[in-house]
Amino acid sequence: MVGEVEETDPELRTGHAYTVQSKEVNPVLERLKKFSDWSRAVKAIARLKRCIKEFKGVQERTNKTTDLEERRDTEVFIIKLVQREAFTEEIQKIRSQKVNSLHKHNRLKKLNAFLDNSDVLRVGGRLSQSALHHHVKHPAILPKESHVSALLIKHYHQRVHHQGRGMTVNELRANGIWILGCRSMVSSHIYHCVKCRRYRKPTNVQQMAELPEERTKTAPPFTYCGVDCFGPFIVKEGRKEVKRYGLLFTCLCSRAVHIETLDDLSTDAFMNALRVLIAIRGPVRQLRCDQGTNFMGAKREFLKLMKDMDQEPQRAIGCEFVMNVPSASHMGGIWERQIRTVRSILTAMLDKFSNRLDTTSLRTLLYETMATINSRPLSVEYLNDALGPEPLTPNHILTMKSSVILPPPGQFCREDLYLNKRWRRVQFLANEFWQRWKREYLLNLQQRQKWQKVSRNLHINDIVILQDDNAPRCKWKLALVVETLKSPDGKVRKVKLKTSETTFDKGKP
């Protein structure tokens, strides 16, 4: 008898034991994984079965295509192969009439599964007394993980013309197919379906960007502003009817507006209106606008003018143009929203004048509209407080505006209100405006009203669909991302796209 072996025995050697399990793979199911279409897979397997019969001499050789009966038999054959591989244990218990021994959490327990005369595993269910067809009352059961299940979902999803999950699931069950976990599998297929993504996927949006510096720092009104045109308006000049347009400047920090009338949308008309703004409101350092032809022409004129200037002080008064990318009006929302306000006010005013307006009357109405908008409160603080301070409005700073570009040096306190030097009194009130502006208005801009979710950045070589409000979705064009432009926070909100016709910039929220 051998005694106990000590661990320190020099003849004792450490070894490793491995357990290997081999699983026989059905060659037909392996061949099916090479197919991406259910109909083609069934035809191929049906033709293979015919060739086997012809090789054994059971059937005469023929070059005819497979008929409907052969394809139906092949479908049943494939389903049985999948069931034998996925439900081996369950089928053995059902055959030995031990179905009650299935675990209560078994995926077939609730379906009351049984084997029919063709040895197909089907749903027992509760519809045996209904007038439905046998294969609809007792559909064949398929596992969720099978490639055959994915082919069937794709096939019936196409048959219902890429409708939603409910219609696809109903079509599967109406054709005698019950896939375990069908709804989640159909949802996954619809999510990855190219046609469904093209026709139904919402447009790509990115988290709302940080406010630009121009909107968060104190500066004289209209130092940084956005501009856009609106109209046209029909006015009478003598016996003729002509078109006139409005040009709206919005101060990016104080939210004040200035409106001018344009005879047309030419570069010269815009340049004259800009000169009027500078003469009335003071120098403009930065203009934000879209890529309208008149704005692009004005930008070229300014660049040419700056090139001709030799003296540095003259260059310092130049205006910088910041152009938004095409089809991205939301990037100019701060002035686009004011245009809607102007339209709503003008609609009520023009109702009194009908077609009797001339250019002078239109200009007067636009100035009255400007005064109304500049009287609106910037925040809701103190609106319902009769004893509180007067609500902050753009007019509080416009009426106190100094003619100098920058505020004069020095500190201004409340005692300056009682001095004889009016300029110090005015400057104190202006400082009061900016302090209230920071406290009551600026802090309210913290929240992102929409586009709160961070989305995946677009990358070069991504395929996208261009939204076109003037065309049905099936006519929207495909484009290739050729360049991405990142914002300071690292998120892509501007891209350069290439279509079959042209290359252009595109912006997203």
Automatic annotation (TrEMBL):
Residues 216-402 form the Integrase catalytic domain. GO terms for biological process: DNA integration. One of its GO terms (molecular function) is nucleic acid binding. Pfam families: DUF5641. Signal peptide: none annotated. It comes from the Eukaryota. This is Uncharacterized protein LOC106531696.
